[in-house]
Records
---
Amino acid sequence: MRLIEKQMLDAVNNKSEWEKDNTLVTYLAGKNVSSIFLHGNHIALYHHNTSTLEPNERTFKVGPTTTTRSRLNALGACANIRKFKACLDGVEL
């Protein structure tokens, strides 16, 4: 795991605001969720009440980059790119 991904996870786990290079984490206290962005594009929501990750399928489908895949995997999603198509949990989007 890359250092930036470890720092991103720390921000999510600590419910804090964090930004570095192309990655941003915001915490929405009213909803108790962390929102994760890459290059200004929303890639996932982390629900702290239920400890669940909700990847943004639309963003990953439209831009299935290796960086997006890497960030989602670091967050705990099973994101892959097969034949230039985005896949989450083995299902093509």
---
Amino acid sequence: MRLTPRERQLIQAILDGAANREIARLFGTSEQTVKNQLVALYEKTGATSRLELAMLVVKGRLDVDGDAKT
């Protein structure tokens, strides 16, 4: 599974504790766009929440600098 640069940025923002509003401001998009991107990212990774997404990174199953590890 390949993550796009934007997906990696989104995950990093989540790890940094940013809320959707902050992420939207950082990316120059709307909050709804961030929500849509999160839903797509959850589907792609199998995560069901921000916490689970972060745990995939912490456990080494998802690398924000590269690709998912399986």
---
Amino acid sequence: MTRGQLLGRIAGASALLVVAVLMATFYVFRRAGSAPELSRYGIAAGSQLPWMSSTDQGHFLDLMQQAGAKVLRFDIDWQSIQADGPASYNWSAQDAVVHDAPARGISIIGTIAYTPTWARPSSTDAFNPPTHTSDYANFCAASARHYGPMGVHAFEVWNEPNISGFWKPAPDVVRYTQMLKGCYTAIKAVDPSDIVITGGTAPAGFYDNSGSPTTVNAINWLAGIYANGGQGYFDAVGHHPYTFPYVPSTVANWSAWYQMADTSPSLRSVMIAHGDGNKQIWATEWGTPTNGPTGSGYVSEAAQAAQIGEAYALWKTYPWAGPLCYYNFVDDGTTTDTIENFFGLIRNDWTLKPGYTAYKNAAAG
């Protein structure tokens, strides 16, 4: 072997060693701080779960595990955690859920929402955005610092900001994009591998429904985020593709499900046009109620079960889809004056609806 050949082999071996060390370092870093690979089978618990008794919380999570659900979306409730001011934190109600879910193989999406009294204008409620977007960004950072070590690495920026029910007095995509950018920057400063999802958009009619002062269609809303500098400040697009009483496969331009990829434009086409075709849509809520006032759009329990089977069968065919979180798990009540009491897969007395079995079968499949 010549000296040149020897030096060549030494140089080659050194290069391989450097590559191996770099790969190992990268692997350890990603393992230590990376966001979880989330399942498509999720549950959106809404606001009630942290306030249940410990017994009911345990029952809730056990039934989730038995159903095959791997993702839990619930509120990191800013208004309660910082009720006493910007320097105070009471995480206890949410901590109880976060502590108990991972042991059952359940990952968490934390929806960071609703404004405490001190952070919003007087004579307003928690569905008003904060006076200073920096207050929200600070809480986003605190949430990431607090829950990151507990295994939470996915955060949703508000809930249904495109309708006045959750963004008062009227949806404002300029203001929302400012909050999104601040929250994203704050969370990534804590852990760059955390996933930040835009606030799940509610169904709001047809594309370009500019005549409505209280709702903005989800496609228009996403386009507005891009138009106001939001590109690069989210990792996934949140959406709530409710269609009840119609089935998810309904072909209609008003359908929030159909608007994800099949209308022109669609959420997907807007994402692709802005170079974000590699990002996913996360359905952080979807569901169908089984009772309520006449004419409210509820369906039978059997029809709910059939829609669940159809929804997850469709969802599995979408290469761009992240979790589909069924809303919600347990009925909130029994009075029929509102459909909000009857979205559950489980009745208010903890007996199982056919929809629970349908969900379990879909997850097993």
